[in-house]
Amino acid sequence: MQKYVIAGMLHSFLTYINEQSLFTPTDKIVLAVSGGKDSVVLLDLFREAKFNFTVAHCNFQLRGKDSDQDAEFVKQLCASHGIPFRATAFPTQTFARNHKLSIEMAARQLRYEWFEALRKELDYQYIATAHHLNDSIETILLNLTKGTGISGLRGILAKKGYIIRPLLFASRADIENYVAEKQLAWREDSSNASNDYQRNLLRNEVVPLLKKINPNLEHTFARNIERIQAIESNFQKNLSEFKKAISQEANDALFLKIEVIQNWQSGAYFLEETLKEFGFNYFQSKEIYRSLCKSSGKAFHSGTHTLTKDREYLIITPKEETTFEELLIDKGTETLDYYGLQLQISNTSIEDWQNYLNTARNSDILWVDADTLNYPLRIRPWQEGDWFIPLGMKGKKKISDFLVDKKVPLHLKKKTLLLCSDDDIVWVIGQRTDERFKVTQGTKQILRIHAMRTANEFAG
Amino acid sequence: MQKYVIAGMLHSFLTYINEQSLFTPTDKIVLAVSGGKDSVVLLDLFREAKFNFTVAHCNFQLRGKDSDQDAEFVKQLCASHGIPFRATAFPTQTFARNHKLSIEMAARQLRYEWFEALRKELDYQYIATAHHLNDSIETILLNLTKGTGISGLRGILAKKGYIIRPLLFASRADIENYVAEKQLAWREDSSNASNDYQRNLLRNEVVPLLKKINPNLEHTFARNIERIQAIESNFQKNLSEFKKAISQEANDALFLKIEVIQNWQSGAYFLEETLKEFGFNYFQSKEIYRSLCKSSGKAFHSGTHTLTKDREYLIITPKEETTFEELLIDKGTETLDYYGLQLQISNTSIEDWQNYLNTARNSDILWVDADTLNYPLRIRPWQEGDWFIPLGMKGKKKISDFLVDKKVPLHLKKKTLLLCSDDDIVWVIGQRTDERFKVTQGTKQILRIHAMRTANEFAG
Question: Where is the signal peptide (chains A, B) (predicted)?
Answer without folding.
Answer: none
